[in-house]
Write a sequence for this structure.
């Protein structure tokens, strides 16, 4: 990294790419670093030696570089290029035709083009074509009848199988129905019996629970009545006491009033 | 003086390029006249061979004739020409290196010693320093040689070289550094004290 930086500094110094401050610092570095100074001097000398190689000042421009020559050259190529292209296409077609055995025939029936085997010119006559069609039709008819017979046989056997199966099915269904009714009655009887037992048990349990509940209710009601009676008695007693106190007070006040009246009357006398 | 005037003309060739694009033959001729010398010298230093340099230069201008209308930005013509010239030179160099594949097994130093025509001192004393420097350039790897030629002889900026070669400026500087270093090494190995001669 340091070396790379040095290289760039040297080049920048040699080609005056440094600003004055950078240049001053670099020259200071060179004063303290003799190896760097030697390297820079060597580079300068190399540049001087390159200066020995000067340019050729005047070069006669050859005809080849003038526009007329260039255009002429391009025009020459203009007709050569298509010619070469056409020749190349023809060559490719010839080689391809040879490899694929390309054949062209022309006769009274027209132009015939083929790849590979040569085209045959033999055509079938009308009667022969008719015969071939009839043969094909009769063959197809025979095949159709044969296939139809086979299908009919298959259907018949299938029908008999279905009849047999139907019969077996009916028989099996009736047997199974009888068995089911007896079992069902028995089952229903069992269920009824079980239900009856269950109901009885339920009534007993519920009756017992209701009885217990009623007893509780009655006890609680009795307790409540007793409590209320005691409260009423207490209240009556208290009221009687209050009444007696009131009577006593009234009696005393009446006595006092009478005493006062009597005293007043005696004083007036 | 002629060279300076030509460079000024190159920098102000916008209208000529426009006319050449429009098919004006005289304008195209002028454009070739403006750039031919520079492209030729670039190719000459690339190969150190006049005939090859002429061939590559002609190919470059034939390409320019074909593609000039497609160049949208006239300022980029310079980069485009150098890029095309460099590509032609590179392809030609590659073809030639295939033809002389045996030389791949010979080191540069060995080649220097075995080549009866390569004798730097003799070249210098026979006042053919140019040819000697040209031969030294040929011994550089292609990437370094291209950068050295563009910077030292074509006076292109680092940014311009980077654009022509499609690399970063730092890569250009790095290639230039190693190119100069390699040249220095070759000069030292040749035993010729250049400092005394100049």
């Amino acid at each position: 990294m340091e070396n790379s930086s040095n290289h760039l500094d040297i080049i920048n110094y040699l080609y005056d790419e440094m600003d004055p401050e950078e240049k001053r610092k670099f020259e200071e570095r060179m004063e303290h670093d003799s190896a760097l100074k030697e390297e820079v001097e060597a580079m300068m000398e190399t540049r001087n030696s390159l200066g020995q190689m000067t340019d050729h000042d005047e070069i006669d421009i050859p005809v080849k570089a003038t526009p007329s020559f260039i255009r002429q050259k391009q025009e020459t190529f203009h007709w050569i290029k298509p010619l070469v292209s056409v020749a190349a296409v023809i060559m490719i077609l010839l080689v391809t035709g040879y490899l694929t055995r390309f054949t062209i025939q022309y006769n009274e029936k027209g132009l015939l083009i083929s790849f590979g085997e040569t085209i045959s010119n033999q055509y079938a006559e009308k009667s022969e074509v008719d015969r071939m069609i009839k043969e094909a039709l009769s063959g197809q008819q025979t095949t159709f009848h044969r296939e139809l017979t086979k299908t009919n046989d298959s259907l018949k056997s299938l029908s008999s199988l279905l009849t047999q199966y139907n019969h077996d099915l009916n028989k099996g269904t009736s047997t199974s129905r009888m068995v089911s009714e007896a079992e069902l009655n028995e089952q229903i009887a069992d269920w009824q019996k079980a239900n009856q037992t269950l109901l009885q048990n339920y009534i007993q349990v519920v009756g017992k629970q209701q009885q217990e509940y009623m007893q509780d209710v009655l006890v609680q009601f009795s307790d409540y009545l007793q409590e209320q009676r005691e409260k009423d008695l207490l209240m009556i007693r208290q009221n009687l006491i209050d009444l007696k106190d009131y009577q006593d007070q009234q009696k005393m006040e009446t006595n006092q009033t009478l005493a006062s009246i009597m005293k007043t009357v005696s004083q007036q006398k | 003086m002629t060279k300076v005037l030509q460079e000024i003309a190159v920098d102000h060739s916008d209208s000529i390029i426009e006319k050449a694009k429009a098919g004006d033959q005289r304008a195209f001729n002028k454009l070739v006249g403006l750039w031919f010398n520079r492209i030729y010298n670039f190719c000459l230093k690339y190969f150190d061979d006049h005939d090859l340099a002429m061939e590559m230069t002609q190919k470059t201008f034939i390409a320019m004739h074909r593609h000039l209308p497609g160049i949208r930005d006239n300022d980029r013509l310079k980069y485009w020409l150098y890029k095309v010239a460099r590509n032609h030179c590179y392809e030609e160099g590659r073809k030639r290196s295939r033809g002389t594949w045996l030389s791949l097994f010979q080191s540069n130093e060995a080649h220097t010693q075995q080549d009866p025509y390569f004798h730097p001192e003799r070249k210098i004393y026979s006042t053919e320093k140019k040819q000697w420097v040209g031969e030294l350039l040929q011994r550089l790897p292609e990437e370094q040689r291209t950068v050295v030629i563009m910077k030292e002889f074509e006076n292109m900026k680092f940014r311009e070289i980077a654009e022509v070669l499609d690399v970063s400026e730092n890569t250009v500087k790095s290639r230039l550094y190693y190119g100069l270093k390699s040249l220095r090494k070759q000069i030292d190995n040749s035993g010729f004290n250049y400092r005394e001669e100049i």
